[in-house]
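Design a sequence for this backbone.
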């Protein structure tokens, strides 16, 4: 993979973007796919298996995106609640389609096991444009705080608020892609007026645990399950994955709440962020979607064992 060494085509080196630069960036973004067709239509087709719960609307000018989550049809008070989120970064495709596949293939089987709440596409504008940021060049996955600068993050926080204190686990479905290094990190450096420092993309699946509430046994259970579907990212010669120390095989840690990350919104005792690598020549899109599903099923099995 070639690492860009030239300056990002928007803004001036050393100067953070203002409204003019953000407008220039937005003008470069093109719609490549349909949130309505890819997400809302499949959700409608699942009404026989789940209850659909509208939880707001993302509005950018004339563009309106209804936000819809899915809930277990047999939701019962006192049963552990498991939250699954996908598409917090809209370009991370298997997060969205993995969440939908989970509902399609396993929602009925999971009835009676846990109260399942799934928000399959948190950032629909970015999903359509295959981008990390929202319309305002804001990263939703650094915006889960009050007050939030992201409509998408604010809506999801409102959705989960009634069940705070009841969540047993939260699995946030993500990808790490080659475009992180070729587009999104250079754009981030330019937006913030900072120099771009080249890095590397790990080849394989890994997880992000919570620095403030590490759960190594939980993470290992997920890694063991996912390894049957796709390969696990090795640490580099510095013992790091994506610039962070590998604390276990295929596991790093971030301070979730301090960084405003989605996986920190529930206060659940068990949290993880999956990171699928779809650009590897060793995997297919099918494997990427299935890895997300397997990660969730392993997490649910862990919750059930803990609450048995």
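Sequence:
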């Amino acid at each position: 993979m070639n690492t860009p060494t030239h300056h990002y085509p928007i803004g001036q080196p050393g100067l953070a973007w203002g409204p003019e630069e953000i407008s220039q960036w937005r003008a470069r973004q093109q719609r490549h796919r349909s949130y309505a067709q890819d997400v809302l239509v499949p959700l409608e087709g699942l009404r026989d298996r789940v209850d659909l719960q509208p939880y707001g609307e993302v509005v950018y000018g004339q563009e309106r995106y209804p936000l819809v989550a899915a809930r277990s049809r047999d939701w019962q008070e006192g049963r552990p609640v498991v939250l699954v989120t996908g598409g917090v970064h809209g370009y991370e495709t298997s997060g969205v389609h993995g969440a939908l596949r989970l509902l399609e293939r396993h929602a009925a089987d999971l009835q009676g096991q846990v109260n399942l709440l799934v928000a399959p596409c948190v950032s629909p504008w970015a999903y359509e444009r295959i981008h990390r940021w929202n319309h305002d060049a804001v990263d939703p996955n650094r915006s889960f705080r009050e007050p939030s600068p992201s409509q998408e993050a604010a809506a999801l926080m409102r959705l989960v608020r009634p069940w705070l204190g009841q969540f047993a686990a939260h699995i946030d479905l993500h990808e790490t892609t080659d475009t992180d290094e070729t587009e999104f990190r250079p754009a981030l450096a330019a937006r913030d007026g900072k120099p771009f420092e080249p890095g590397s993309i790990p080849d394989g699946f890994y997880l992000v645990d919570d620095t403030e509430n590490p759960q190594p046994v939980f993470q290992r259970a997920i890694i063991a399950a996912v390894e049957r579907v796709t390969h696990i990212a090795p640490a580099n010669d510095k013992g790091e994955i994506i610039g962070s120390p590998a604390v276990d095989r295929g596991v790093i840690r971030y301070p979730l709440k301090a960084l405003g990350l989605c996986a920190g919104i529930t206060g659940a005792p068990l949290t993880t962020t999956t990171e699928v690598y779809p650009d590897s020549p060793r995997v297919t899109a099918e494997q990427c979607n299935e890895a997300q599903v397997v990660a969730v099923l392993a997490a649910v099995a862990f919750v059930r064992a803990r609450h048995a």
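The radius of gyration is 19 Å.
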